[in-house]
Design goal:
Elements (H helix, E strand, L loop, with lengths): L2 H10 L14 H5 L7 H15 L1 H6 L6 H18 L1 H19 L6 H9 L3 H29 L9 H4 L1 H19 L20 H25 L7 H4 L1 H18 L2 E4 H8 L8 H10 E4 L5 H36 L5 H4 L1 H28 L26 H39 L7 H24 L9 H12 L5 H9 L5 H14 L6 E5 L3 E5 L2 H20 L6 H10 L1 H8 L7
Parallel strand pairs: 1-2
Antiparallel strand pairs: 3-4
Helix pairs in contact: 3-5, 8-20, 10-11, 11-13, 13-16, 16-18, 18-19, 25-26
């Protein structure tokens, strides 16, 4: 099995269906061949299946061609294309149809399907994914931890730096193997959609050789430093650092060239060189590629990326110069036996942090100035701010809402980069202070210096472990049947509370009590706000006033007393009963006529 397939199965088996997610009919069954069929047998089987499944053949046989027949023929043709290619056939045999779709067309896979497959995967498949993250954590932090333990003399006086730096040698082997593979790869072939006169090799052979030579100098410095620390060799520190200086100078040359490159459009480039790009020789194109960055326009994402590339190159120049000055001071102190304070030797490092922060905020100021020229109103400035010397003063730039949002996002992104750089450099300066303190004789362990990284990595690893092992499938229909049953039971025989009270109390109520309840309901209703109308004869007439409500209430009570006194005698006992229960009626009998005023 190929290594890439084995790695895919190790990483992504949990995202494949734990059940048989592929079709029950495999590619071999579709072509009616065995799994060890030869290419010739596959070819004959494909011709036979084409005669049986082709829609035209089915039509000639008098059958109605359905969508299923067309899909089956398309799938049969895809099956032959996969099995006819030895590499794709090996991939299919290892990971199946669904796995091939994930490898060849990852964007066509449904994310919900992947999440469902992962939620139903086995613990073994999840453990493989967690083992990969755990291996990355160990590979990243194993070397720093061992160096710190060696610096604290934890391994004893007989420990050798050559053994402690074993993870470093493993990393060097992998990186050297990568550089050799890139060097042996040969020139990159031109894609079909790019014309030959416009094609430029992104990795020319000269750059590949330079990268390999530069990394070789770094490995040589590591070997010499290890032998010096173990006492195998004894040379001057200035000689030992020569490979390091060469490594830095090669990088410095490339970064200076990148920082000095001009960002131009295609029209500006042709005007500068005096001819079109199609007429240039390959050597001239390579020279142009080293001197210019060609963009479609002097605005947009491509131009911003090119400008950011130059800014990053400027910061790298600052880092390289600071590293060279620091190493020179360190070598002079070690070779001459001077007892300089390491706070003085590390001054270039602190200066580097200040310069990097200043460069980041300078980039932010430049972006803000560019945005102000296009739309001053984004910063609350006068629209005439960017047109003080323009004859058409007061006419703002016609920007759409999308362009304004793009400008805001550009400023926000630049601000995030500036403040992110500032806080990262502050954190770096604190770590450098801990390093200097340890060199000067502080008593804390060296692991304290890298403890923030260990803790942060451990927290991330724990979160990944909880996510990998605790994620499970949730049944959306779970409990719905019980819920619907409870709702149906509660809804059967349900009567609104007010209706229920009225129905229960209806047999016990008399006609007078019903009228009285209706009157009380009307009295309890909220009063309407006062309103007025205009009558030409009577003038302004007010309605819903407090005086009017009192008069209506008096008239209603007087009418009620008249009805009670004029009722038949045979209803007197009932009236007495009702009146004895109603205190208001008792008051009415004592004083049948009264004035609220």
């Amino acid at each position: 099995m190929r290594y890439d397939i084995a790695f895919f199965l190790c990483c992504c088996r949990s995202f494949l269906s734990s059940k048989n997610g592929d079709s029950d009919e495999s590619y071999y069954d579709l072509l009616a061949v065995s799994r060890d069929a030869s290419p010739e047998e596959l070819r004959r089987a494909y011709k036979k299946a084409s005669l049986q499944m082709h829609p035209d053949k089915l039509t000639q046989q008098g059958r109605t061609v359905t969508a299923e027949d067309r899909d089956r023929f398309t799938r049969m043709r895809s099956a032959y294309e996969v099995l006819a290619d030895p590499r794709r056939r090996e991939t299919y045999d290892a990971i199946g149809e669904r796995g091939m779709k994930m490898v060849e067309e990852p964007l066509s896979v449904d994310p919900q399907e992947l999440a469902h497959n992962f939620a139903t995967s086995s613990i073994l498949d999840r453990s493989k994914i967690f083992a990969i993250f755990l291996s990355i954590y160990i590979a990243v932090f194993l070397l720093p931890v061992m160096v710190c333990l060696m610096a604290d003399n934890t391994f004893g006086p007989d420990a050798k730096w050559a053994a402690v730096l074993t993870p470093l040698w493993i990393w060097d082997v992998f990186i050297m193997f990568y550089h050799i593979r890139v060097l042996m790869m040969g020139p990159i072939k031109r894609p079909d959609h790019i014309p030959e006169e416009e094609w430029i090799d992104p990795l020319p052979m000269r750059r590949r050789v330079t990268a390999l030579v530069r990394f070789s100098f770094l490995v040589l410095f590591q070997v010499l430093l290890t032998l010096q620390l173990d006492g195998v060799i004894s040379i001057m520190w200035s000689v030992l650092f020569i490979p390091m200086y060469i490594w830095d100078l090669i990088a410095l040359r490339r970064k200076v060239m990148l920082a000095n490159m001009s960002i131009v459009t295609a029209a500006e480039l042709e005007l500068a060189i005096g001819k079109k790009m199609a007429d240039c020789t390959p050597e001239e194109k390579e020279d142009i590629h080293r001197r210019f960055i060609v963009v479609p326009a002097k605005s947009g994402h491509i131009y911003d990326s090119a400008q950011r590339l130059k800014d990053d190159a400027s910061m790298d120049i600052i880092r390289i110069l600071a590293r060279i000055i620091f190493s020179v001071l360190l070598v002079v102190n070690l070779d001459l036996g001077n007892d300089w304070s390491y706070w003085l030797i590390f001054i270039p490092i602190f200066t580097m942090s200040l310069c990097i922060c200043g460069s980041a905020f300078n980039s932010l100021s430049r972006v803000q100035a560019e945005v102000v020229k296009k739309d001053p109103t984004l910063f609350g400035l006068d629209p005439n701010y960017a047109k003080m010397e323009d004859e058409e003063k007061g006419v703002p730039s016609p920007l759409t809402d999308e362009e304004k949002e793009e400008l805001k996002a550009k400023v926000a992104h630049s601000a995030y980069r500036a403040f992110g750089t500032f806080f990262s450099q502050c954190f770096f300066a604190v770590l450098v202070c801990f390093v200097i303190g340890k060199i000067e004789g502080a008593g804390y362990p060296t692991l304290v210096i890298i403890s923030p990284f260990l803790v942060a990595g451990g927290v991330i690893l724990c979160c990944l472990g909880c996510t990998i092992f605790c994620l499970s499938e949730v049944d959306e229909n779970a409990g719905m049947a019980q819920f619907e049953t409870s709702v149906a039971a509660a809804g059967s025989g349900y009567t609104p509370p007010r209706q229920k009270e009225q129905v229960n109390a209806q047999p016990q109520q008399t006609a007078t009590e019903v009228d009285k309840n209706a009157t009380e309901d009307e009295e309890n209703e909220p009063s309407k706000p006062p309103s007025s109308t205009w009558d030409p004869e009577k003038g302004e007439i007010w309605a819903n006033t407090a005086m009017e409500d009192e008069e209506c209430s008096d008239k209603a009570k007087e009418q009620e007393m008249i009805d009670l006194t004029s009722a038949p005698e045979n209803t007197a006992p009932q009236q007495e009963t009702a009146e004895s229960k109603d205190p208001q009626s008792q008051i009415s009998q004592v004083s049948p006529s009264y004035d609220l005023d």
